[in-house]
User: What shape does this take?
Amino acid sequence: MASEIFVVAYDGADRGVVDYAAKRAKASGAAICLVHVLQWSPYSFLTPEELEERKMRRRQELDRASGALVDPLVAELKGAGLEVESEIRFGSPTAVILDVAGDKGACQIFVGRSGKSGLENKIFGSVTLGLAQAATIPTVIVP
Amino acid sequence: MRVFGRLFSFLILMLALAGPALAQEAEEGGGNTASIDAWMNSVVGPVTSPFVSFIFASIPGTELPWIVLWLITAAAIFTVYFGFVQFRMVPHAIQLVRGRYTSPDAAGEVTHFQALATAVSGTVGLGNIAGVAVAVSVGGPGATFWMILSGLLGMASKFTECTLGVKYRTEYPDGRVSGGPMHYLKKGMAEIGHTTFGKVLAVCFAVCCVLASWGGGNMFQANQAHSQLVVITGGDASFLADRGWITGLVMAVVVFLVIVGGIKSIARVTEKLVPFMGILYLAAALIVIFANIDQIGAAFAEIFEGAFTGLGVAGGLIGALIQGLRRATFSNEAGIGSAAIAHSAVQTKHPVTEGFVSMLEPFIDTVIICTATALVITISGVLQQDPATGLYVWDEAAGQIATTNNLSGVELTSAAFGTRITWFPYVLALAVVLFAFSTMISWSYYGVKAWCFLFGDNYTSELIYKLLFCLFVVLGAAVSLGAVLDFSDASLFAMGIFNIIGLYFLAPIVKREMTSYIAKLRGGEIPKFPKGAGATSPAE
Assistant: This one.
């Protein structure tokens, strides 16, 4: 059992942050918790048809996230000798990542700097900046 | 990619609005299209009139249509039977909507807020704008009182049907969730030993639901959207005057793209704009009301006096009562069963919770929005009063209170807002088109569910329904208000006949659910979540 846990925010595309966190984890003997967040708001507006299909789509989204993104990566990191677990959750990314970090008693958060397009970030705010502002534990921003 | 999708859908919407103007340039010089409208009127009127006269037949010896009494009696009975649930449980309903009782484990599922928002988008529509204008101009301001009463009582009917909608919904193996009166009439009635009777009720309901989806959920919407477009493009001089088929055709194309073409982004844009428009509408109403703040006392006095005396309006008390109840029911659809379809997909362990939440729907729709419209019309002075007696001037030919330029329906509401905010009719036109569109999308869904219940759940049968639906958009925009309004009212109210029979049988089941839930709630057995579902949630 590793003494320390690193939470790694993984958006499904940013390998850089995962590789960097893996290197640090190996060096310090920490465990990794990969967090993948499916953007979702309980206050969004849906059509009646979308309401009907919501449960089905949720299941599909979870399957796709774990099957195509998270599970292969976890297997790969485990293969490299790391202690790894993963979380896939629905919600607002920043809030979810902070919550997982709290639940796991993590000592550090790793997050990438890239991600959504500049314009979208300007309007909605980015996860990276949100974490930098709200995190209560040291947060590493990997360029 | 998504950005492009949104942009595209926005362009389509703009095109839908600008389309008539473009057509105007293309067809400068005009064609003889008025005759098409007249022909459609002569065909649609006679076909629908026997059905309409049956539904609105008066109780012998009175002027009260039996169907109005049927709905309001049911609402009153449910109010008493459930111990005034609509007053006791509203604070809890608000907490449910805020997600205080939604487990974080359910993130990604349909929330109480989402089910309510979709249902409200389906009901807030032209009933709130055009229907109220009809009620107030025919029944006098007193109709407002009966509208509010009907809204408050209707909350109990809504509670009953939406609880059942969730309890007896069908969850398919692939994860889709579908419910509504067809399901609870069939399954619920079978559970209490009335299998055949339940099936008959379900089939009759489905037939009426299909008709209503073409009438009130479609033709009426298209019709009023068209007349609002005519008003802002120049009234009788407008190119669109007497050319309803053009507006109808443009709207039908957009509806076709969404429901047949599956271009969901258009629907999504509308779903997002509708709440915004609703808030804007309410804000404008408040501006008009506050600008005439000195008259507010008089307006309320007129509403209360008119409710019991009729204030000299033809039809008097009964006229105000009938118009108020009829238009309120048309607007909030309580007891009709439609809302139970939209509410049934919510994620909850206790069906009764969605019943509580659904009570907010008639409240928002009728008690707040309809009342705001009625106050604006009353205060604005568009209804002509005799300066000597203070009584309203009755226009015998139009069958309503005399108005400037003989306006009725949505045009009257538009003029009322225009007295204070001169540019508001343009915003209202956009709101009307959007409300009409979102109501059509909701009703096409209700209709297709009922249609598939009758004719089988397959692609061909769905497609036939959807094509017919688009055809009715064109028809609705083309025929005059009278024929459309009567048919759309009649088909909608007919749903209430079968739905409410079922509700009487199934009410004890709802009561058991309610009693046990409230006991658990009081005993602290219902877990509460400080953060609500929005913050976070572990996956399955």
